[in-house]
Amino acid sequence: MRLLEYQGKELFAKAGIPVPQGRVAASVEEAVQIMREHPAPSVVKAQVLVGGRGKAGGIKFCSDAEDVKGPAQAILGMNIKGEIAKRILIEQRVDIEKELYLSITVDRASKKPIVIASAMGGMDIEEVAAKEPSAIAKYCVNTAGGYWPFIGRRVAKEADIPAAVTGQFVSILGKLYALFFDVGAMLLEINPLAITKDGKLIASDAKVDLDDNGLIRRADLEAWRTDLPDHELEQRARRTNLNYAYLEGKGNENVGVIGNGAGLVMGTMDAVRAAGGEATDFCDIGGGAKADVVRNAVDIVTADPRVKALFINIFGGITRGDEVARGLIAALDGGTWKKDRLVVRLTGTNEREGRAVLEAAGIVAVETMNEGAAKAVAIAKS
Amino acid sequence: MSIYLDRNSIVLVQGITGREGLYNANRMRAYGTRIAGGVTPGKGGQTIEDFPVFDTVSEAVARTSATVSIIFVPPPFAADAVMEAADAGIKLIACITEGIPVHDMLRAVAAIPADVRLIGPNCPGLVTPGQSLVGIMPGHVFSAGNVGLVSRSGTLTYEIVDQLTRAGIGQSTCVGIGGDPIIGTVFTDCLRAFQEDPDTHAVVIVGEIGGTDEEDAASMIARREFTKPAVAFIGGRSAPEGKRMGHAGAIVSGSSGTAQAKVQAFERVKVPVADSPATIPELVRSVMREPARK
């Protein structure tokens, strides 16, 4: 779960990491009220997850309750690369001397938390890595030992962090590391970590990505999800614990895809593309799905008007073929989707029982994934 | 021969009294796996469908001499179960559970000793066909032979093994390593084991988008630490950037983790990449006919 900047900064502030004074607003009136209470040169920032909001006009300046109206009006509701800005963050301006970079993420290769820092902040770290790899310091933290100040001193040295702020840097990194485990983050990124004209370090931006699995321990953070920009069908799927992603690209999406297992579903999307179609979604009913899960998946995927054919690809392991078949029949009986726009491939555990259930309802399952994809694309184009 | 698992492996089922635990304990036993019993805290002393149940893994190990454990424990308690197994002296742990917090796994992999092999989590387990199945895979699609398989995906593995078996190509051992960002065993671990196994003549590597595990495997081949014939497949070529595709691991971020980068990494070391699971058997035949890579 990726968080908006203001949410990330709220977590930073609670963890003791310095952030600019600021408040979030969802309307022009709220923005005016904020500026009335805190009249000072401020920056108005669109709260969106996509990058490049500055270039798109999503960051503007103001100094009092009167001249916040224009920027607030312009940014609220602004479409930034397909994402609508529903909120703005109004922050007091910080006089910046220099911009640094600091993040902690999960390193798959070492299976440890990795600290990444650079004295070249303010730009995309992947760009820095490509242009000047020596400007980036990385350190994999021993999970069992945890964070100790020597790690911060070493990273600061290797990243060329100015000596005058090393003490603050070591302290901020310690707090960031504690927050990393506290909230179960996949990524905590401060870019830029600003050095102010008076020599203080402050987190000018906040990029936070939480581990969805970790939210079982932090239900309080789950509440923030409602502010996040998700497709309506994705929200519906989440409420019912269905693993679903709405896909959009070139506008030629036409085949709804449902399968069991992320790998198989991705393989099915690839097969649909190879057959000349394009998947409208990624929908994984997971291992051991019962009939009601299948029914819910069919309902959600086919609620998308772009779906012209539905391809259900099941290779049963922990998932039983007969359970899937029963769910499918229930979905067809209770819903509006017609079986002539449906292609089912069912094999693996209890495949014979599953096929029998389908055949009794007049549905013939295909044998292979490629055959099913070709058939679904043909139906979608008919 | 095989890797990690054979007919002599004695296996415990952690979470045996749960729905999936019991269902799969029965399926594994029917396949021929030596299931010695199971563990469910608080239910020790019972017998469930002829399986003895123990309160702790350490008690179960003492009574059964098991060295392998398979875990069907719900996500909040699964990392605890992994560490309990390692602590009790289990040497091979297959953790099936999906949805374990990544930070739990960070701690678990740091805690388990180097001589314990953890497969998963969020994996289908592993099988040495005709000998032992420790996982949730449909046993009937596998057949014994000389091609090893290692995969980040579960169901896609069944798909590919089914194609191999239908084409008359049997398998030495198939390992589903799991789709999470933090997993106990990665491609390079399995390739190292397959390299040492005289009965594995070729390997199929089933990757997917996200991470750099495929690139690491390709580097290992470039260093000639793995020299047997290999074929690869990458799932998720049509997945868009930044969208999480079910597996927490399967996400393309920026330029890293793309299907294209992985395909190129394998092609650079002359490992052919199949366009579709259906073409894998043919590619396996062709690489096995070629002289060994120089």
Question: Describe it for me?
Answer:
The complex is a heterodimer of chains A (382) and B (294). In chain A, the strands form 5 sheets. In chain A, strands 1, 8, 9, 10, 11, 12 and 13 form a 7-stranded antiparallel beta sheet that branches. A 4-stranded antiparallel beta sheet of chain A has the order 2-7-3-4, covered by helices on one side. Chain A has a 3-stranded parallel beta sheet with strand order 15-17-18, sandwiched between helices. Chain A folds into 3 domains: 21-92, 2-Layer Sandwich (Dna Ligase, domain 1), CATH 3.30.1490; 96-222, ATP-grasp fold, B domain (D-amino Acid Aminotransferase, Chain A, domain 1); 232-381, Rossmann fold (3-Layer(aba) Sandwich), CATH 3.40.50. Chain A has 382 residues and is α+β, with helices and mostly antiparallel strands. Chain A has 13 helices and 18 strands. In chain A, strand 17 (309-316), helix 11 and strand 18 form a beta-alpha-beta unit. Chain B is of the alpha/beta class and 294 residues long. Chain B folds into 2 domains: 1-122, NAD(P)-binding Rossmann-like Domain (Rossmann fold, 3-Layer(aba) Sandwich), CATH 3.40.50; 137-294, Rossmann fold (3-Layer(aba) Sandwich), CATH 3.40.50. Chain B has helices at residues 19-31, 57-64, 75-87, 102-111, 155-166, 187-196, 213-222, 259-268, 280-289; strands at 10-14, 34-39, 47-48, 51-54, 68-71, 92-95, 117-119, 125-128, 132-135, 144-151, 171-176, 202-208, 230-235, 273-274. Chain B is globular. The mean pLDDT of chain B is 92. At the A-B interface, helix 9 of A face helix 1, helix 4 and helix 5 of B.
